[in-house]
Amino acid sequence: MSRPKFDHATVFPIFALTFVDILGLTLILPLLHLYAIKFGAGPLEIGIVAAAFPLAQVLGVPVMGALSDRYGRKPLLLVSQITTCIGFILLALSNSLWMVILSRLIDGLFGANIATAQAAISDITTDENRAQGLGLTGAAFGLGFLFGPAISLIALEFSDNLALPAWIAAVYSLISIMITLFMFRETLPASQRRAAAASTSVLAWRTWLPDFGLLKRPQMGLLMLLMFAQQVVFYGFESLLGLFTLNRLGLLGQGNSLIFIFVGIVLVYGQTRLIAKWKQKYGETRLAQIALATLAIGLLLFALTPAQPHPLYVKAIAARDVQELTPSATEAMIGQFAVQLPDDADRGVGGILWLLVALVPLSVGAGLIRPSLNALITHRATRTEYGAALGLSAALVTLANAIAPLLGGLIYQQYGMTAPFLLGALVLFALLMLTFSVFRRIVVAQA
Q: CA-CA distance, 365 to 152, in Å (whole number)?
């Protein structure tokens, strides 16, 4: 029997709107602590600004996902994109700290763009090619994280006004609304929406709450735990990457930007080139295990990066530049980190090369893990529950994003530079061992 062909033309509008949405989001993410500092915020207030969006998403995304099961993907996409645009405009117009926080809360509560786009992908793919489809939304995510911060930095080169990146983000959000209005075709048929509505008509109020009943499905709890745990580990890595590379390699802003670009390129390659090939060869459960293993190995190698500054490093210049840096949201939440700069006597390329090698399996694993887990999650839900299931998955990811910087930073302060990465690798290896006994009981439905 021939394998179902993946319809790139149908998926393209979803890829495009996801990319543009993420582009807008990543324009302002690196600057959030500056928006707070602008209005005299201290460490606690900066932490609140950083946590407002992910904590609001924990409540909002599962609800929006469930409503998309009931009313269709397109209406809920438009609602979430419009409120995201309003949030960016409010951020641009902010004249006080409470307006900055309110802008993030509005976007978090109603901004279920990515989860709804993933549900739409699940609607139009089969069990055989769903991981590939979800991988494309992941690739759009990676590309957004590549270009968004770069556009933000370029904008600030021409203007010191922090409102400018927020206005640019609002424009990108408006473009994504146009893509949804004119290019996106509804993927959930009316008959299935009616079926979803009928199934919740007796207790309609439950559609306004996250559907935690999904966790009672066989293996669903483990899959959600894996989604949450890997995101805590990976986002903790992202949050502490700059501090680690400063300590080991003497890298500052420009160097770390190149590191993030390298990670983004490998992520996109994994999500566009490897998922379909490895899914066909190994299957989704084995693909998820490969992703966990490569992510853990990459973290372990990353933690063991030798302390050798890059060839152009000068300690006196680095020390001066560090004095001028504003704190990141992670630093602000738990206090300033004491980062010991490396000596410039032993400069070379060994440390950089080791780091780049470690980042390859780490980035490949990170690129494969979420699409493969989300594909397995959809296998445990009915077609009319895709929005609710993927919304709950996305909510756990955002909760992990709120927890990871704080948890990773505290471990860093208490136990040293390598501890968060070594502990993260051990956690992933333990979860990998758990999957060998549990995944074999997952029965994947065939299309």
A: 28
Q: Where are the alpha helices (DSSP H) in 72-129?
A: 73-92, 97-110, 113-124
Q: What is the pLDDT of residue 126?
A: 79
Q: Is 341 helix (H, G, I), strand (E, B) or coil?
A: coil
Location of structure tokens 């089969």: 126
Instruction: Tell me the C-alpha distance between 24 and 257, whole Å.
Output: 18
Cα 166 to Cα 144, 152, 250, 324, 362: the distances in Å are 15, 9, 31, 24, 31
Residue 59: how many other CB atoms lie within 10 Å: 16
Q: How many CB atoms lie within 10 A of CB 350?
A: 14
Query: pLDDT tens digits for 25-73?
Result: 777 776 776 787 788 776 667 767 877 888 888 778 888 877 888 888 8
pTM of the model: 0.73
- Distance in angstroms (rounded) separating the CA atoms of residues 70 and 195: 8
Q: Out of 43-47, 171-175, 315-319, pick the least confident.
A: 43-47
Which two three-digit tokens encode residue 327?
């704190």
pLDDT tens for residues 291-300?
999 999 999 9
Pairwise CA distance, residues 208 & 197, whole Å: 12
Task: Assess contact for 172 and 89: CB atoms under 8 A.
Answer: no
Give residue for tokens 């973290």. 299
Could you give all domains of the chain from N- to C-terminal order, each with its CATH number?
10-185+217-441 (1.20.1250.20)
CA dihedral 358, 129, 283, 369 (to 10 degrees): 30
The interaxial angle of helices 220-249 and 284-303, nearest 10 deg, is 30
pLDDT of 389: 83
The residue behind tokens 């756990």 is 396
